[in-house]
Design goal:
By secondary structure, this protein is an alpha+beta fold. It is built from four helices and ten strands. It is about 20% helix and about 35% strand. A hairpin with a 2-residue loop joins strand 2 and strand 3.
Length: about 130
Amino acid sequence: MTEKEVKVSKQHVWAGIEDRHVHLGLTNYIQGALGAVISVELPDVGDPIEEGETFAEIESVSTVHEFISPVSGVVLTVNPQLEEHPSIINEDPYNEGWLIEVRLKDDSQLEDLMDIDEYYHFVFKDKS
């Protein structure tokens, strides 16, 4: 998955959209801000997640951060590589470092997300 194929929330979670299935992951910007990821706590397959609620807890060497889901749905898959190799989030956040796959409940929620160019402007607008 490339950056151009994703929508992004203001909470730095990307959504890779494929029909009514959505992969969620962390943006390159936020994984860099977190530093080296050392553990990941995610929902289980079959669990419901809700837009605006915490769906992931990521621990890095410097902090623990909760991430808010940009969509509602049911968890279809959890990235199996994260249990043994959580730093894959740092190494490849848009491909191998995805977190979960969700069956989308309401695709209108995707309309509130930014494309990658809008997200870039959102992140760096006050830093130039």
